[in-house]
Amino acid sequence: MIKQIYHKLVKAAPRDGQPAPWYKQNRLYQRLRTVPQLRAIRASLPLILHLTRQDLVERHTGSVLGATWTFVSPLINILVFVLVFSSIMGAKLEGFGAEIDQYAYSIYLICGMLAWIAFANSLGRITNLFKDQSHLVTKVNVSLLALPLSVILTETVVYIIGMIFFIGFLLLVDFPLSAYWFLIPLVYALQCLFVYALGISLAVLAVYLKDIKEVVAVVLQVWFWVTPIVYVMEILPSWVQWGMQFNPAYILVDAYRSLIMRQQLPDLMPVTIFALIAVALLAVGLWLLGRTERDLRDCL
Which family does it belong to (predicted)? Predict the structure, then answer.
């Protein structure tokens, strides 16, 4: 079934007589088309979109609400954060005004949790992706570089839904929205690049080392608690605070909080370090996959 869809979508010839879109006439676009990895991803894109849609629909198959849970789950998470920490526990952060302070900690928490959920879910699922999709990897000529994109796209949809509900909550409590919100997609793009780059290497290793999936799950749990997501940075010792500038998860979370809560640009040095780490991981992942791809397909 999947193979038939792949050939139908990917092998379909373009219609004659239609002018090329404006972006296809750009020189940069023409050069990027010649990069083998990008050509492989582009050829597999229709299949990736199909897998993304299938994942969103089937992840809640059998439940009463079905795909509606994709919308309900982020809403419930936000409601729980607000009700538990603002209304029941009365957790507060000062400095945002008397009317906002009672919700400030919930806003602080949601900023971090939405980013972390997308980060951890994407990385955890990509790690075992080649094994989970072994029927595609072995039977369909799909690019292994393209497969992780289906996971990232799925988690992006869930993240966007969560952000929409988050914006609704901010408007409800009269929290000011600034123009810095327009930079959030750039931060999220860096997040996706990091997850994609690291995920490729982990997915390759998971084919040969059976314990990688469990190790990644444990590391993500530890990573969550050593990152100031549910607590504030100021409670940590000074030397730990200094080391946080090298923690990729904290760099991401702090960048979101700078744009949303502090309404200012994040510190560019940590963000630059994060981007360099992501590029380095991407290079390692491409090299590792290039060296093992043929053997990897046989092992599956």
Answer: Belongs to the ABC-2 integral membrane protein family.
Q: What pLDDT score does 102 carry?
A: 72
Is 31 in a helix, a strand, or coil?
A: helix
- pTM surpassing 0.85? no
Q: Angle 42-44-46 (CA atoms, 0-180°, nearest 5)?
A: 95
Distances (CA, A) of 203 to 208, 239, 240: 9, 34, 31
What distance lies between CA 71 and its chain's CA centroid? Answer: 17
Distance (Å, whole) CA 256 – CA 184:
7
CA distance 147 to 151: 8
Please give the C-alpha separations between residue 27 and each of 23, 41, 60, 147, in angstroms, as whole numbers.
9, 19, 44, 27
State yes or no: pLDDT of 24 exceeds 70.
no
Q: By 3-state DSSP, what share of the chain in percent is helix, strand and coil, each rounded to 5? A: 80, 0, 20
Contact 250, 224 (CB under 8 A): no
pLDDT tens-place string over residues 122-163: 999 999 999 888 888 888 778 888 899 999 999 999 999 999
> Number of helices (H) and strands (E), helices first, in the chain?
13, 0
Whether 103 contacts 81, CB under 8 Å: no
Question: For 250-299, what is each residue's pLDDT tens digit?
Answer: 999 999 999 999 999 999 999 999 999 999 999 999 999 888 888 888 77
Alpha-carbon 126 to chain mean position: 10
